[in-house]
Amino acid sequence: MKLEGDIVTPQGVVRGHLHIEQGRIASVAGASLDSARAGEDGRPVLLPGFIDIHVHGGGGRDTMEGGDAIQAIARRHARHGTTGMLATTMTAPIADIEAALKALGPVCRERVPQSARVLGVHLEGPYISPGRLGAQPAYAIPATLDEVMRLNEFAPIKVLTIAPEMPGHIALIGPLRDAGIRVQIGHSNGSYDDGVAAINAGAAGFTHLFNAMSALHHREPGMVGAALAHAQHAELIPDLMHVHPGAIRAALRCIPGLFCVTDSTAAAGMPDGEYRLGEHTVQKCMGGVRLADGTLAGSALTMDQALRNFVQKLDLPLEDAARRVSTVAADYLGLWDRGRLAEGAWADVVVMDAALQVRRVFVEGEEIDVVVDA
């Protein structure tokens, strides 16, 4: 199969074609092109499939439901260009988390047709600060290595969010890293020093930077200060509600591996109304998702809109925006054959028009049924 267009590659934009064989990219051919000209004359723009490591739900379904919810979630996000994702849990009683992970395990092992690849699990809680729950239910507890590794047997935990100030958490970071689990700092009321200690112990990044963590003050830099001063990687929700564009610009200057996540809920890809987020009921209205008290509760963001926000609202060059919705997260997870349009990589491709609207999506060479606006 051959796809023609303006191709966003790790080396820049190429006007030419991708040749796909057996689900992988066999070759990329063409001539270099100034990225500002991508999509001119109605030519399609080919980007690497989006990688989202923080997905609670979509299409009216929530990860914590168990059952076939994850299949519906992965299908909905694939239609918006997400080709790889981490199913993300909520803080809940351990028995509920176990039930969710048992349902996730088989889907992590084998991709469901017409769906994004579920690359594993992001365990966001219950090992967080009771003082920084955000929209998480009040079941926060300290972690133990035995418990985390037991949960990992049900489904592969790729990312684990912890509050480093919780008892014993700093000491867990090294063993978890050695077990292949990336520890992220989040939902934390800890100090700048707590954040630096966690980074020095091997913490890999920060969960939804700025949100649900101690803020930056010039005499008390907090977790945000630790991230801006020391982090190599951090998630960020670029729906322009969770984080002001000015704060996003500051983070882009400070953190080399800043990348996009949606933190999406069941409301993603759905009309306004009530949806589930773990045990909470949330309301989608005017593009946001909130608890009854007005607290932001995840988002309705999809990765194609995140890309458009980076390019059209924050003026990032297309290649840089594509890296932050695809390549950086893939590299962070150690997936060198995803998140890039290059020979040997999986044929995870998003075909967009000049306005960056999704027209076609391929996951491992399979074309996804995308509903395209007339």
From TrEMBL:
Pfam families: Amidohydro_1. Keywords: Carbohydrate metabolism, Hydrolase, Metal-binding. Residues 45-366 form the Amidohydrolase-related domain. GO terms for molecular function: N-acetylglucosamine-6-phosphate deacetylase activity. It comes from the Bacteria. Its EC number is 3.5.1.25. Signal peptide: none annotated. It is an enzyme of class 3 (hydrolase). Belongs to the metallo-dependent hydrolases superfamily. NagA family. This is N-acetylglucosamine-6-phosphate deacetylase.
